[in-house]
Request: fold
Amino acid sequence: MGIFEALELLLGLSLFLFGMNGMGDALKRCGGNRMKSILSSLTSNPFKGFLLGLGVTAVIQSSSATTVMVVGFVNSGMMTLTQTIGVIMGANVGTAATSWLTGLSGIEGGESLTSVAAWLKPSAWMPILAVIGICISMLAKKERKKDVGHVLLGFAVLMTGMDLMSASVAGLKGDPAFASILTTFENPVLGILAGLVLTAIVQSSSASVGILQTLTTTGAITYGAAIPIVMGQNIGTCVTALISSVGANKNARRAALIHLYFNILSVVAVYGGFSLLNLFLKFSFVGASIDMWGVAAVHTVFKLIAVLVFAPFAKYLETLARLTIRDGAEEVEKVNMLDDRLLATPSVAVEQAEKVTATMASLACNTFLNSLSLLESYDDRLAAQIRSEESEADEYEDVLGGYLIKLSAHDLSEADSHSVTKLLHVIGDFERISDHAVNVVESAEEIREKKIVFSEDAQRELEVMRNAVAEIVTMAREAYLKRDFATAMLVEPLEQVVDTLRDQIKLRHILRLQKSECTIEHGFVLSDILTNLERVSDHCSNVAACMIELSKHDVLGMHHYTHDVRDGSEDFNQSYRAYLNKYSLPTR
Reply:
């Protein structure tokens, strides 16, 4: 092989890897909703886990990516160690699909336009696929259709890379020196080691299998040499997951070890069984040259046999991983709910961020609702709890904000981009709600320390205000957690009633002050309470408006929404009148 053939081989390999990554990324975006369904499909049923791993890997075209995702799931507490086993086995089988696709490059046949074989060759239909892909990518307006175009383009580039690699090694056919090198891989140890190292370097068993398929076009690789190389490739694919598990919690590292142990034991059992049978039966195909389809078949059969052999013993793989990484005495495992490993699959990372935001929403709203009770009866323990929960809400905002910024830098689908925008908006509102809870605690402490007693009229008015704000906070929380847009539409009318109540109560206080029924000191405390309650209702309105507008994919339309509902909307007016009647201040 000369320098130009070597450069052509490198170009082909580069295009192959670029096409595979591009196609995989586009498939992730196209299958975003399917990827999100992973979160609700995780199950301890091994068979369902197997199907889940197989399906996800078929979508994203990478068992390494699936396994890294599994490590992230375990580290974030979304998946138990037991659940990973079936998914890992399914991912191993799912990655074999790529080898059948790349095997198309090995089709040989006539050159006649009427020949079926000629039209099955990638060189015949790949240009058509590329043209269709570029037209869709450039002309489509919707992101999902653009992603379909990117999938077609990625596949076209991948297959072009395969053709270039095949062409670059064509001159090695019949080369005795090259043939002698490849025959050394018939030694199972060397063959397994070669497959392992190659896969560890390119970080993809699909890519390394594609390279092996390219080399089969020389006719110098036999089944006897290819089989151990394929075995080694399956061990080498574990390197990515092992690297990703560094710094993760113990169960996440165990998940990576399960992947490694499964592949090592599979190689020992399957190749050992094959060698034993060959010793007695003398398989004739072992010395025959292998082609691209043969590599795909070996790859697939090995994985299927491995699953059939080890599926009944799945629990022992977990036991082996636990024996390797043991629990410490009374050690509490830390769970990182927002795992950076999930960023590689943005749709899954968005779903997890939404779950963590929902936890923050419940925490912030419940903290504020608890603070309202202190205005009636002060409790030191509850006050301390509220301050602690407010600090926790601050931490949620910091962690979520940083995670969402990192997530927004990834290649997101349109829907995921809107979700990230929504989350960045609402986490600030929920954090401010928890801040106002502490402000209410401070007002309650001031009332106790200064022995302030409001007049009966002021107490009744404040109770109406508290009840109205308690309802709006509850509605905003439930609307967000349940994605209930009908409830979200009721928040803004009630927010307007809260504004009206604040103004009316302040006016009534001034009238009492003029009659010497209240003091200025009472007024300062009352004003602080009213301000905090009214601002909480504003944040609830922001959350509801954000939900409604971003559900319509209108990122900048929240102010338009609040303006529209107040301006002549009959539904708004009807709800406003109902709440105004429900929370009317008592007459003197």
The chain has a mean pLDDT of 82.
